[in-house]
Amino acid sequence: MIMKRLLLVLIFLFLVTVVVGVNVTYDHRAVVVNGQRRVLVSGSIHYPRSTPDMWQGLIEKSKEGGLDVIETYVFWNLHEPVRNQYDFEGRKDLVKFVKLVADAGLYVHLRVGPYVCAEWNYGGFPLWLHFIPGIVLRTDNEPFKAEMKRFTAKIVNMMKEEKLYASQGGPIILSQIENEYGNIQSSYGPAAKSYVNWAASMATSLDTGVPWVMCQQQDAPDPIIDTCNGFYCDGYKPNSENKPTMWTENWTGWFLSFGGAVPYRPVEDISYAVARFYQRGGTFQNYYMYHGGTNFGHSTGGPFISTSYDYDAPLDEYGAPREPKWGHLKDLHKAIKLCEEALVATDPTTTSLGQNVEASVYKTSSTCAAFLANVDTQNDATVDFNGNSYNLPAWSVSILPDCKNVVFNSAKINSMATIKRFVATSVKDEVSDSKAVSSDWSYVSEPVGISSNDAFDKKGLVEQINTTADQSDYLWYSISIDVKGDEPFLHGESQTTLHVKSLGHVLHLFINGQLEGSAIGIAGQPDFSKDFPITLKHGMNKLDLLSLTVGLQNYGAFFDKTGAGITGPVELTGGSTVDLSSQQWTYQIGLKGEALGLGSGGSSLWVSGSPKSQPLTWYKTTFDAPSGDTPLAIDFTGMGKGEAWVNGQSIGRYWPAYIAPTSGCSECSYKGSFGPTKCLKGCGKPSQNLYHVPRSWLKSTGNVLVLFEEIGGDPTQISFVTQELESLCSHVSESHPLPMEAWSQDKSTRKLKLESKPRVSLKCPHPNQVISSIKFASFGTPQGKCGSFSHGECQSTTALLIIQKACIGSRTCIIEVSATTFGEPCIGVVKSLAVEASCALNT
User: Fold this and answer.
1) Buried-state track 164-194, b at ≥16 Cβ within 10 A, e below 16
2) What tens digit of pLDDT does each residue of 728-763 get?
3) Taking the model in full, what pTM does it have?
4) What are the residue ranges of helices labelled H in 188-314?
5) pLDDT category, 263, cuts 50, 70, 90?
6) DSSP tag of 394
7) Which residues are catalytic, by number?
8) How big, in percent rounded to 5, are the helix, strand and coil portions of the chain?
9) 812 and 761 Cβ atoms separated by less than 8 Å
């Protein structure tokens, strides 16, 4: 009977816990979960930029990497493409994504917005907002506020119905309303302040039971927490002493634009920025992005933002750890967590240890943690602290969880590095084993100019977005010119020129059905002009201008007012000028192939063959899925610009013909402040050549690939490539802080315990792989980096044999970096161990 009563009590307590959930608040130090201040590490993963079959793996790798929280935006135009018609299926299944995060034991920060920026089309707003009478977006405007409140309430109620807020026992501990409004607030005048206050009041009235934040909003009214976004936020202070210091976007790299080189950010700088943030009082930090993913379909904004949204994130576009970034940040997170008790107990005391060197100490009667920072961009420093001497590399932070032992330095990497390559896969067809996707293509020629019964005539030039409502990237502007021979523009000394001014983003000119030239705008510039030298024949001439967008504007004050299309003037010049702008034009929204649904591969119009270098051509082939489970992409070498579909699903816009500038790429030092153009690679090459094909979109056989090529290409050159691991590397010095796995903390005494010496650790990423060879091994003074190590003057003669014996045949190997292991090659010299290995399937 007693046991039965005890069981009933336990069940009752369990049910009460499930129903009541946890209490989430905040104070000046931290977010407070169930009465306990927390130091939290967060990472951004946007659910629609990957596929549902990827989500669990991304979340698990995030947890393994030391994250506590997964942050995501909610994308309004994705979920409500038509007013009052909602879609939460497939990649749009927000509830499923949040539940998977909960299943992993992590928290969620739900950034509802509903303006998100995010290099997302139209900033996440559905374009139908633009056509509501009297609406002005992101200000104190009643039509806009009504729609914003309706969608925000829709999302909040969805989460409540599924009991996903922490107050209900769910994982959501934070929500965000609006996004970086403070950056452009002044442009909206006095109405901006009342809008901010309204948005805050509206959000809190939805009664989620968790705090709300506004990023980049230093006038955020109580109880909203204002937060920082940027490459560095260690100097940020919230607008109230009662609010914690939070960093909602730590940019791990930068987005890629078509026509630009590829940005990247060294992990030494990221870890420096993070350590400085926690050193100076921060307790919540979020990586933007932790996994960037892919802009499938027409989701990318900008304009000119690429299909890849890799962002140089710790997890690459395909979901694989980017080493050493992922591993070094994992070590950082462990070091921060060793300091958590001290960090949340008190505020830091900071003192100078010399020029550009300082110490911040968190100390109570029972605990002590310290951060030693060298903010000099050139010079290393040796400092005395707490009776000990410490070496601090330039632009680095050392973490001492017990105010004595350095367990982590941001500039000294213990984690392994990897080299990954994309390798062409052979595809069997009736002709041969080929690296090409297929040799068996069919095609449909897209008509030049007007081909639809829905075309319309209008005097003057129309604005593109108001005309197409973004239902297509394409808008045809067509006009006919009857040349009799006495036209003034034909009788000058110079050749006849067609001058066109456009808001962009790309323009193709066809004369009498032939492509005569193209013009491309530049990201960040509002318009462009192009002079096309042309030749007109006697009689009727047909001029067709195909204007297209490459993602709509997503950022800036009144970004929704940024138009597109040919604004004019459109002029014929030679001996004199004739303005065509105000004449009668014929317009067609979209392409015939779009109306016929050619992207899905249907229709009876396909003709066998693959004409090369032909503009406005649809191509189709079938293929079997490449074997294996490694990440898959298409290498679009040989193509120009267009869009691709796999089994009816758009993998996005491709544009390998757009080449990055030849200058601007060079060796990049992590030392000193980072900016979007500081570290670039890929100069003189296509901005993006590889396009992610999710394996979950494929069947084993009979897959359909469709391309629409605008300017001309050769589809027989494109190939499938898989991401393969080429090398594992590690380079660890005797002077490095000990690996994080070497440290543990006694919960009763709070003392750090040391369990090993510096060591190299290698691990093949796939469970079925083992280390198959050692490409390089040197203990002494090796030089270089992964893929290009070389021996120094000091080297052990036994290093290679010892490493081979320890590692080959095992998935994981750990080798102590010491003369005890390898012998003493040079007394009195600080030595290091460098290893490069390869992995293979364990057969």
Assistant:
1) bbbbbebbbbbbbbbbbbbbbbeebeeebee
2) 999 999 887 766 666 666 656 556 665 557 889 999
3) 0.95
4) 191-205, 267-279
5) very high
6) S
7) 180, 249
8) 20, 35, 45
9) yes
